[in-house]
From TrEMBL, chain A:
Transmembrane segments: none annotated. Residues 1-22 are annotated as: Disordered. GO terms for cellular component: cytosol. This is Ring-1,2-phenylacetyl-CoA epoxidase subunit PaaC. Pfam families: PaaA_PaaC (PF05138). It comes from Klugiella xanthotipulae. Residues 1-20 have a biased composition (Low complexity).
Automatic annotation (TrEMBL), chain B:
Coiled coil: none annotated. It comes from the Bacteria. Residues 127-166 form the PaaD zinc beta ribbon domain. Residues 13-82 form the MIP18 family-like domain. InterPro entries: Fe-S_Maturation_MIP18, FSCA_dom_sf, MIP18-like, PaaD-like, Zn_ribbon_PaaD. It comes from Klugiella xanthotipulae. This is Ring-1,2-phenylacetyl-CoA epoxidase subunit PaaD.
Length: 290, 168
């Protein structure tokens, strides 16, 4: 990743000058411009990279939209706030990924989020799973967090500087998400007989969708060195899950494996209604602002 | 333009941008926060680069608008505000003065440094000092607080709840 410290922005341009925050070391020039009005001036994603950014952006966006439902419905006020904040972080990650994905076709982050149909979404089906009860949500968040953590850890080393920057930014926040889910897994598993039973059911219900997260796609061959090959993330994921499950005295569920297909636009039945709710305002009142 | 003159011109823009405060924590300027990263001046065009604290922090939009407004008031009309993600912001960039201001405002500043890159995710938490009575006998109520950057703690001495700016 190239860094510049106090370097004039354009060589030979004598009317240009720069000031950087001197106490904070290296400064990266704005590789990624998030403001919608200046899209086109930022880095443009090559088509295959844009498709990959779509996978990760849609994962984050769909999970954020699911989590938003809990605000005012969580078991305690602190959880309303915690889940709301996690959703907000995820929306931030989605904005970065989707802005970058949209740069390939001249679309804004809002066009990416609100004006793509269900079959154009590329989220994995785990992120689309219904909230269910609180234990289901925790089970899904735990899996999602462990997956994203393993992924961003490696994506920081991507040859694509924008993807690497988004991953390096996001992983710090995902640290907190995994921690949140882990605390709840331990608390529910070690709580009452009822909380433990519900958590076990929660994990059993979402586990069929774990496999899809680690399946390689043809796009991986095209993006060697840029995207992370999903199958190589499984050991890191399994290690973390095993450690928490051991402490919680839980067993990895056994059962069927879902066919998946989210990365090629085949989605779980929950995605359509989720998008309908998320997109209705933008579609009914284009350009609405408040 | 001479280099020295240019330096003055850039410093002038920096100082104006540095007056903008965090809308959620009005005692902190974006310079104190380490959010103001870079100023470029090219002819009459000015570019100010900010970095977001948390990815989804809604205060970033307000800060961008406020920077634009502060510069417009000072006569700069060709202003671009960009957001740079890399290197990722960390609480280590909050200035010492900023930490003192936070504490005086009633928000405990981050304790310790960002652990990222040195270890795995650790739940180990250093004692957080109560910003009211300075007691270290405090406890975490919730790791997520009123904004993305804060956790909620309470003091067991003075019994007051308080916000803690958590390490990132």
């Amino acid at each position: 990743m190239s860094t510049t410290t106090g370097t004039p922005p354009a060589a030979g341009d004598t009317t240009a000058a720069t000031l950087t925050s001197d106490e904070h070391g290296n400064i990266e020039l704005g590789k990624l411009t998030l403001a919608a009005e200046v899209i086109g001036q930022g880095t443009v994603a090559p088509p295959a990279v844009a498709e990959y950014a779509l996978w990760l952006g849609d994962d984050a966006l769909v999970l954020a939209q699911n989590l938003g439902w809990w605000i005012s419905r969580a078991p305690e006020l602190e959880e309303d706030i915690a889940i709301g904040n996690i959703a907000l972080d995820l929306i931030g990650h989605a904005r970065s990924f989707l802005s970058y994905a949209g740069s390939a076709s001249g679309r804004t982050e809002d066009e990416m989020a609100y004006f793509r149909g269900e079959e154009e979404y590329r989220s994995a089906q785990l992120f689309e799973q219904a909230n269910g009860d609180f234990a289901h949500t925790i089970a899904r968040n735990f899996i999602a967090g462990c997956f994203q953590h393993a992924l961003y850890e490696r994506l920081q080393g991507s040859h694509d500087e924008t993807l690497a920057a988004i991953a390096a930014k996001s992983i710090k926040e995902v640290d907190y998400h995994v921690d949140h889910a882990t605390q709840w897994v331990l608390r529910l598993a070690g709580g009452t007989a009822k909380s433990r039973r519900r958590l076990i059911v929660g994990f059993a219900d979402v586990w069929p969708y774990v496999d899809e997260l680690f399946r390689d796609e043809p796009l991986n061959d095209e993006l060697a060195g840029v995207a992370v090959r999903q199958s190589t993330l499984r050991p890191a994921f399994d290690t973390r899950v095993a450690a928490v499950f051991a402490e919680a005295e839980l067993e990895v569920p056994v059962g069927f494996t879902a066919t998946g297909g989210g990365r090629v636009g085949k989605h779980h039945e929950t995605l359509g209604p989720l998008l309908a709710e998320m997109q209705v305002l933008a579609r009914q009142f284009p350009g609405a602002a408040w | 333009m001479l280099d020295a003159e240019m330096e003055v011109a850039v410093r002038r823009v920096w100082d104006i941008a540095a007056t903008v405060t965090d809308p959620e924590i009005p005692v902190l300027t974006i310079e104190d926060l380490g959010v103001l990263r870079r100023v470029d001046v090219c002819g009459t065009a000015v570019t100010v680069t900010l970095t977001p604290t948390y990815s989804g922090c809604p205060a970033m939009d307000t800060m961008s608008v406020d920077v634009r407004r502060a510069l417009a008031t000072a006569g700069y009309n060709d202003v671009t505000v960009t957001l740079a993600l890399a290197p990722a912001w960390t609480t280590d960039w909050i200035s010492e003065q900023g930490k003192i201001k936070l504490n005086e405002y009633g928000i405990a500043p981050p304790t310790g440094h960002s652990a990222r890159g040195t270890a795995g995710p650790v739940s180990l938490l250093l004692s957080v000092k109560c910003p009211r009575c300075s007691s270290l006998n405090t406890r975490e109520l919730s790791r997520f607080g009123s904004t993305s950057c804060k956790a909620l703690h309470e003091c067991r001495e003075c019994l007051e709840p308080f916000d803690y700016f958590k390490v990132l």
